[in-house]
Specification:
Radius of gyration of chain B: 13 Å
Order of helices and strands of chain B: EEEEEEEEEEE
Distance between the termini of chain A: 41 Å
Oligomer: heterodimer
Number of helices of chain A: 0
Radius of gyration of chain A: 13 Å
Shape of chain A: globular
Strand content of chain A: over 45%
Largest sheet of chain A: 6 strands, mixed
Structural class of chain A: mainly beta
Distance between the termini of chain B: 37 Å
Structural class of chain B: mainly beta
Order of helices and strands of chain A: EEEEEEEEEEEE
Shape of chain B: globular
Chain lengths: 112, 115
Amino acid sequence: GDSVTQMEGPVTLSEEAFLTINCTYTATGYPSLFWYVQYPGEGLQLLLKATKADDKGSNKGFEATYRKETTSFHLEKGSVQVSDSAVYFCALSDQNTDKLIFGTGTRLQVFP
Amino acid sequence: EAGVVQSPRYKIIEKKQPVAFWCNPISGHNTLYWYLQNLGQGPELLIRYENEEAVDDSQLPKDRFSAERLKGVDSTLKIQPAKLEDSAVYLCASSLEGQLSYEQYFGPGTRLTVT
């Protein structure tokens, strides 16, 4: 079945460092891809999305490009802030069932 | 606008006891989801409602788990009897009817500890 694999955390960075969180997927067909963020004590929030190959999703300085050839959707940010500390989940939406399938999450810790 | 409300936020019970979680979706949202999130894992769908109807409960362990959404608004998820392995976070989410699944809004979750 469909699945998502993302890098284990925690990822620990200093403020203004460059961030990459890797995500790869396995799916039949052409899924949509997402990154969600979960801040401490809050619910998951959609951060960005891409619905077809070569699409780039972006929001709040974060970007991810849908790479069909490498089945990847890596999350990047050029300069992280302390306020970006959270857990980030990569996810896909099954084309047939419209069901969300999540990765295991990656905790990001940013220190001043 | 109020978000998805869940209660309680934390619950500790002994194994074999029953437990119930409550969710109130965003006003006007017809679709309601319950997810299970084990420690270090992503959320997994347990059940999806469209109004009062459970349209996908294929992942709900029906021997001990039950859910209801009697008036198509708030919902209750119950476990009876609880087992140690049920310790997890239970998430509720909602969306407007007809929206794609990624357009759902999540609540903060209920963290269950079974001792």
